[in-house]
Amino acid sequence: MGPRTSLASASLLSLAALALGIGLGSSDAEGRQVKMPIQEMDQMMFEEPMMGGFGVAIAQFRLNDMPLGGTAAPTLAPHVGSHGGTLALDRHGVLALDRDSGKLVRTSRKGDHLASLDFAAGAGEMVRDGTSDLVYVADRQAHRVVRVRAGASSFDVLDRAELREPHGLALSPDGETLYVTSVADHELVAFDTETMFPRWRVELAAEPRGVAVSADGQHAIVGFLTTGAVANVELGTSPNVSYVALDPAHRVNTDPFSGALVDSGPVLVDVGVAPGHSPSLADTKDVGLRFARNAYAVGYIGDDLAIVPHQLSTPHLPTSGFENTGSYGGGGGFTAPITHRMAMIDAENSFAPSTAFAEIGVHQPRALAYDAADDTLYLAGYGNDQVMAVAEVSQASIHMAWVTTVPSPTGCGPDGLAVEGDELFVHCELDRSLVRLDLSTVASAGVPSARQVGAALGPSSRSPAAQRGAELFRRGQDTRVSTGGFMACASCHAEGRTDGLSWRIEGHNLQTPLLAGRVVGTHPFKWDGKDKDLPTSLTNTVGRLGGSGLTANEVRDLQAFLESLPQPLAPTVDSADSIARGQALFESAETACSACHDGPQLADGVQHDLATNIGSVDTPSLIGLAHTAPYYHDGSARTLRALLTDKGSVHDMGDTAHLDDRQLDDLIAYLESL
């Protein structure tokens, strides 16, 4: 197995050897598995990813558990259309759904543009029917799913179905059912592909994204931005949803059996209580807990094993004697606050699915493709432009075959992969291009050769400044942005949204705010209102992340990008009367909500003393409130009902104690409609 052997045996002693200039050897490869083309240091094994004198010490690929596969090659492969994405290969060439330009583009495999079809910018996924020329597109911003016949040089729109903010798509093995996730309404909806009428819908947790269907057609999995789990859906006429946790069971830097901090000494938790004020439970309860986030792309590999690449966040690292207040997460300055993993799930037993995890070096994984012919999984990192090949992924001999960086003069941001034979195509969201990786060169060169094919797929919908800002916003492994380059802006604010966590920042635990639709006209910024404007806040945030800093022009580019983001869509509400009653309560003198939350952004720009652990708190905007749980500056109110019934850490805001259950329901309906 060559590289896997060295990967599994490397130790801290090996790191010391590297410091002395002594290289680690790796055995020769078999087939496409060749001598690793990356630094051996990247293959080191650490109990936790470390930051130190060497900069970043994190495994490119490391198994944390026993593999779920057997010793033989898989006998069951996923069908074409088992999951969606932004790229597909068919008998006519390449299909690319370019989210920035809002175009579905047909190209040849050499990159020649043959046809295009316009959609709204910010589309979701597309999925191809493997038995025909049919393609389905989630036109996310236009609230519709479109059925298209994709010919060699033309597109024909055949039908469409209305659905609020569709994103993820997958087809049943027989092609008769299309499964779609709704971001705004937190649903999975099954459509009859012939009539485009819905067959059923089931409620999901918040922020669903990708969906995939098993080869036997019995199960689907759904990934989420903020849930910390993957939905396992038993399909049929009466679907059933259960959840498989992705969050680790034990706390970081602690013994998994006793829960004690591994490093001796008392755990330092400085809650930073302002004089005369009370500490927040949120400052202590999440110490060392890790949370799975940003599970965009999901899929199945051989023998119906599910794959869920995702981010792992530790918002409050435990410390022993020293807290690093110059970075997010606190801690002693040695443990990474964010890493990335790949979950492998065997859901054959729906009551107790088996799981295994592997750390991966691709930053912000947002695309995957599986080649059943040689049991290889390909993953792409939106944050660092890396593509990784994981060989024999469905077997006990799983290992990383190679990793490479997609070439792009301005940054790629890969959000789509498609593989067939010796061709692996990459869709670059940031420069709207296609890149072809030639897998036939791996045996001789160690990595595939890569080249951009064709011109840009379409014009950007962003201004030049916003386009540059988008590239900065997603950029991982950049020490100008964060300590060790572990964190990007998009790590906590994917799509400009919120990760639903409260991060340890400068001695306090502070909830991640929503950015999309909330940064224009809402100054000052930061929970205490100490950042007077957006450029100041962005500059200070990079400093709080531990980054070395951005130029003034780069800060302006980030500002342009953030100001271009649309606000999240509110969920569908069945009763307009309930919203109207809730608005009346909100604006009434008895609740006094609108006394502070007023104006077009529902914020007065004033700091109020609410007896919190950070002193006065700036009034936050309520735009997109349905998508921003938990609530308050410290995330101590998990739901809007908890907030309105005085179950968070803040007790002097508004007057809702007298409201009955119906009035609370009405007020919540109004708040979620904002």
TrEMBL record:
SUPFAM superfamilies associated with the record: Cytochrome c, Nitrous oxide reductase, N-terminal domain
Keyword line: Heme, Iron, Metal-binding, Oxidoreductase, Signal
InterPro entries reported for this sequence: Cyt_c-like_dom, Cyt_c-like_dom_sf, Cytochrome_c_Peroxidase/MauG, N2O_reductase_N, WD40/YVTN_repeat-like_dom_sf
GO molecular function: cytochrome-c peroxidase activity; electron transfer activity; heme binding; metal ion binding
Keyword Oxidoreductase attached: yes
Record-annotated Cytochrome c domain positions: 464-566, 577-674
Matching Pfam families: Cytochrom_C (PF00034)
Protein's UniProt keywords contain Cell division: no
UniProt cross-references to PANTHER family, sorted A to Z: BLL6722 PROTEIN, CYTOCHROME C PEROXIDASE-RELATED
Name assigned to this protein: Cytochrome c
Organism: Enhygromyxa salina
